């Protein structure tokens, strides 16, 4: 049975974030095998793919809409995610950003919300194995639509990728 390699988060920047009083560690079903997202819960949950996963967000600052929250995914990535030797496959960037943004969108939207558009801008390759931080924040809401900005970072100021995406709630659901 797979055991998450949480010791991978012993890096100083990881510990600073995990121990900050302004950060909330949230438990999400996306890492439970019974969840309906088998790409994340099974395929990418191995010793050589996503070795460990932490979902976090900033505490609310007098904003009941949660729009001021920043959501984080701290991920330990294994060498099974390589495209070119030692570098994260470009398609995995999209998967990680989509998952980070989904968690962010769920803070203000119903469960039936989906990605409508995603624009990725690659800055530099992500070395694997390694630990990265996805940072997602809602930048605008209008009717059933939510715009989210996301980055993949090295946790120490280095930027690997940035993205903007549009999410839409199904049917006549208002956000």
Concise account of the structure shown:
The protein is of the alpha+beta class. The chain is built from three helices and seven strands; from the N terminus they run αβαββαββββ. The longest helix is centred in the middle third of the chain and has 17 residues.
Structure description:
The protein is α+β, with helices and mostly antiparallel strands and 175 residues long. 17% of the residues lie in helices and 37% in strands. It contains 3 helices and 7 strands. The chain has helices at residues 12-18, 38-43, 90-106, and strands spanning 23-26, 50-58, 70-77, 113-122, 130-142, 145-153, 159-169. The protein has a 7-stranded antiparallel β-sheet. The longest helix has 17 residues, at 90-106. It starts with 11 loop residues before the first helix and ends in a 6-residue tail after the last strand. 28% of the residues are buried. The model has no long low-confidence stretch (mean pLDDT 87).
